[in-house]
Design goal:
The N and C termini lie far apart (58 Å). Strand 5 and strand 6 form a beta hairpin. The chain is 21% helix and 15% strand. The protein folds into two domains: 53 residues, no CATH class; 64 residues, no CATH class. It has 154 residues and is α/β, with parallel strands linked by helices. It has three helices and six strands, in the order ββαβαβββα. Strands 3-4-6-5 form a four-stranded mixed beta sheet, covered by helices on one side. A two-stranded antiparallel sheet has the order 1-2.
């Protein structure tokens, strides 16, 4: 495993690789499920950094995000991403408004509230094509309704 001595560069990206291992192969302590035959690791295409071996995709993606976007865990949690085009575009705009400028242009992850489990990270689901990482938490606060809407439905 390579060790990075300096902070990630602007070229760092959150990426993982995976492969199948042979039965009986010794698993390092970073592998939470030694009997599972798939291994994953964060691997940065920008600087060559590699994370520890993992057996869980979520762990490898989190390692990759920790490397390329060290403060990603402090970013706001968004409502679940809608499937309908118009609503999804509004969701993308809302995410761009609360995340740092340039975050999604570098394929930064978005933290997404997932009310019914389903915590698997989704590559390509963030506004810039990065990961959407599921978060188990209280639902995010909805933005206040405009005054006209409140008067009609309040």
């Amino acid at each position: 495993m390579s060790v990075q001595a300096e902070p990630p560069s602007g070229e760092c990206r959150a990426s993982i690789t995976s492969w199948r291992v042979e039965a009986g192969e010794q698993a390092p302590p970073t592998v939470s499920r030694p009997g599972y035959r798939i291994r994953l690791r964060a691997r940065c295409p920008g600087c060559g950094h590699e994370g520890p071996l993992r057996s869980e995709e979520e762990e490898a993606v989190e390692d990759a995000c920790d490397h390329a976007f060290p403060d990603w865990r402090d970013m706001p949690v968004m409502e679940p991403r809608p499937y309908e085009d118009a609503r999804r575009e509004r969701w993308y705009a809302a995410a761009r408004a609360v995340y740092p400028r340039g975050w999604f242009e570098r394929e930064g992850p978005v933290r997404e509230y997932r009310p019914h489990g389903g915590m698997r990270p989704l590559l390509g689901a963030a506004p810039g094509g990065g990961y959407s990482v599921g978060v188990a938490c209280e639902p995010p606060a909805s933005p206040p309704a405009p005054a006209l809407q409140q008067s009609l439905f309040g």
